[in-house]
Structure formats: C-alpha cells, structure tokens
Description:
CATH superfamily of the largest domain: Vaccinia Virus protein VP39
Shape: globular
Strand content: 5-15%
Distance between the termini: 70 Å
Oligomer: single chain
CATH architecture of the largest domain: 3-Layer(aba) Sandwich
Number of helices: 17
CATH topology of the largest domain: Rossmann fold
Radius of gyration: 24 Å
CATH class of the largest domain: Alpha Beta
Helix content: 40-55%
Structural class: alpha/beta
Number of domains: 3
Largest sheet: 9 strands, mixed
Amino acid sequence: MTDSGSRCRVAAAQVLQQVWQGRSLKAALHHERIQFDDGRDRALLEAICLGAVRHRRQLEYALACFLEKTLEKQDPICHCLLLAGLVQLHILQLPAHAAVSATVEAAKDLSRASRAGLINAVLRRSLREGLPESEHLAVRENHPDWLMKRLQNDWPGQWPAIVAANNQQAPLWLRVPGEPRVRTGYVAELQLEGIDVVAPAFPPQALRLQRALSPTQLPGWDAGRVTVQDLSAQCAAEALAVRPGERVWDMCAAPGGKAAQLAEALPAYLLLTDIDSDRLDSVRHTLDRLQCASDSIEFRICDATQALTAPEPPLFDAVLLDAPCSATGIIRRQPDVKWHRREKDIDALNTLQWQLLKNAWHHLKPGGRLLYSTCSVLKAENERLLQSFVKQHVDASEQHLPDTYGMACSIGRQRFPEEEGGDGFYYALLSKA
C-alpha cells in the first residue's frame, strides 16, 4: 500500500463530507484533486466520490444494517470514510485487501485510529454478506423520496428508465463548429489517432467519444476546433434556428456553449447576459477560444427578469431562454443534484422561470420566436409552466419541433436522460403574433 493510497481515501472522505454539507461535488473534487500529481490517483478519487454520491442511499442503508448506531452525526468523517470503503468494494470492485487496508490506514491519517478496527470489521463483513437491499424503492434506486414521487407522477411509463440513467456515467459529447464536412474531417482525424467516436445524424455538429479522455488533449482544442457540449444542449440553439442578420438575445448565456452556436449563425446583433460577472467571463472565454467573438456581440451583466434599459426597450427577432432549473435532467453528470435539490425549490424556480419568460416576451418582436429550454424532466418547470404562459398570452403560439427533439408533450418536447445518449432536456418554441 502506497502513501498516496491512504491519502486518496482521506481526500474522498473529505469531499463527501463537504458534499453532504451542501458544497457542490465539482467544487469539492477540484479542491482535493490538486494535491495529487499522478493521474491515476485523481481518477480513483473521482470514481470513489462519484460512486458514493450516486449510490448514497443504498450505501447508507447498508451501514445502518451493519452498525447498531451509524456514525453520520457522531463522527461524520468516519461515516464518509466507510461510504468510500463500500464504494471501492461493491461499486468499483477494487481488490479487497488493498481497498480495505488503504481505507483503514486513512482512518489513522484522519486521527481516527480508534475507529480503525470498526472500519475494518464493517468492510470485511460487507465482503462476506454483500450489501443488504432495502424494500424501499427510493432507497434501492438511490433517489430522494420527493423526487421519486415526482418522476413517477410525471412519467408513469418512463420513470424506471429515468432513474436508471441517473445512476449511470454520462458519455462525453463534443461539438465541432462548421459545416458537416468539417465534422467529417475531424472524425477521420480522431480515428487516425485511435479515438473511436459516433457521429449522429442530428444535431449535425455532435460527436460522442466512446471512451473517456481529457478534452484538452483532443486535436485542435486550443485552436477552438472542438468544444464539449452535450447532444441535448446543442439541440436548443438548433431549435431557435437563428438566421444571419437577426437581432438575438441569449438571456442566461453562461457557460457559453449555446451562445457560441448563436454567434456562429452570424446575427446582426447578439446580446449575451448573465446576472453573475464571473459566469459571463466564462462565456467570453468560450467565444474567444472558439474564435467566434465579434463586434456584433454585446456582453451585459444584468438581471434578465428586469426590462432592459435603453432609450427605447430593445426588441429581438429571436430569444433563447435556457432557464435556471432543478437540473434533474443532468443528474448523471451532477449526481449531487439529487441531494442538494429540495422539493420546495421547485416553486421558487417556477417564479423565476415565469419572470424570465414574461420579460423575454416583452422584448420579442411581433413575428419573433422564443425558445424556452431547461435541463429538467419535471413537468412543473416545463410543460405545465408553458401551458399557463400560452393560456395567459393570446399572442403566443407553439411552433412545431420534430421528433428529434424528444417526446411530444401538450406543449413542447421532452428528452429523457440517455435518450440517444443525451441529457434530459425540454424545448418549447413559441412565436409572437
């Protein structure tokens, strides 16, 4: 057992403790990863943490069965270390001796030597007996009760596939800017380097890598020839179908993937807004790297629920509202969403989504079009919200989107996670009379 082995388990326990306290998994992992020089240690740390967050309820149920009294409140860091140990043995299926030894050693490194015997006993018992299975469906499926009920009510025929997809690793999707022949040439370039990819018929710039690798190592990354963007996210800008010479507003532009697609369509004017200056800086960086920044693009820090200030309110031919949402369609990418989101959050999000929709409509020209999208699978944020909006706005009408955008709803279309390999997304295209 190497020193880095126990250090990796220490870091995993610390990441999990931070996540359970409310910090994002991405931020916690980034903070702990930097101490490891070896890419294998970083990969193992990430795998342990992702496994624990994805399978949290199943693992915590097992600990409740193995222990007379769990350590969750009494000794949170040891509780997290036990979760990390169970992940290694039952999710990642690492060699038992090394995994147990490194986890026990980590307890000593965390000044929990008195717990070493208990940790060793619990992990070895789990090897003998396996993980006990709860009769509670939401525990078995590793989802909070409220979300499980919502999914079952919203999607009685699809919820099993949704929760199964949520517990899987998402593939890496790329977007290759330019005409279809550019993507064709890039595929050939990747194949020459032994990188297997899939190029779907739609969207036309999408590529899916068949194995994980660092995007920054891809040919032409620094030159902006390729970027990371999920298939479903790419579809949003495709649905808006911006034409050269139009005035366009991307209301919630960060992190910038959709904004770059809009910029590449050569609008006469493109307004990119976000309420956070750091997030808007990330949009600038994305457009600069993809070499699609131009004088026709304006970046503005603002609250998009409020009317835009100008001598006269500006009007747009097309508006993209990729609204803040529960992110329940991207749980496979951000599994901590399951534990950080609360049912009461949906009402607050609905209020924000409605305010954004109303302001988008206020700034849309007659004859203009609005694309509302979310990375949510909850009807309250999607279909039901748009039903109410159209009912209250007689000048609003839905524009047809083809089957490639997912299942037809009473208004708009819903993609589910893992459908065509993409994330869960909702799209509704409205036109203004």
